[in-house]
Amino acid sequence: MIFNAIQFAADAHAGQYRKGTNIPYISHPVNVMKTLCQQGCDEETIAAGILHDVVEDTPVTLEMVEQHFGKRVARLVAGASEQDKITDKHLPEPDWKVRKQRTLHHLEQESDLSVLMISCADKLDNARAILHDYREKGEELWSRFKAGKDEQKWYYSSLAGVLVKRGNEHGNPLLKMALELETTVNQIFLS
Q: pTM to 2 decimals?
């Protein structure tokens, strides 16, 4: 299932790159997969981690994910996705901050442990990439995002807080990842 998910995601994300870089986008889901494997997650959670952006960022639908990988993987992908981006792709997206507030609420109130693991691995890889690029590019980095540095600081600090809180509820390995996310976020914004 994991290797099928890698191929499926590679095909879906073909031609996409990480924001402002020449790095093929597939590197991000593969990094999420690596983190989930290292934390001992089950095969369906790992597959959903690989597929976590296919419904948000490509023409792939949740129905297609379910057809190829089953109901649980589709449910996990949906749980780790921004709902506004997967329910009706033809409607305009709500405001960036509204979407992020909904994500925070979902993680804090509704997400199960597998969704929290996927989301934390996703945000941790994003934060690592931001930290790397910030050290290379400095303040100009923020121009590649829809929201600027202050908004990104609010979002990532809030994410770290919610995920550490949920990590305290569930213990390791979620807590370990959430604390690493918090440390990485602090390195980005408090340096």
A: 0.94
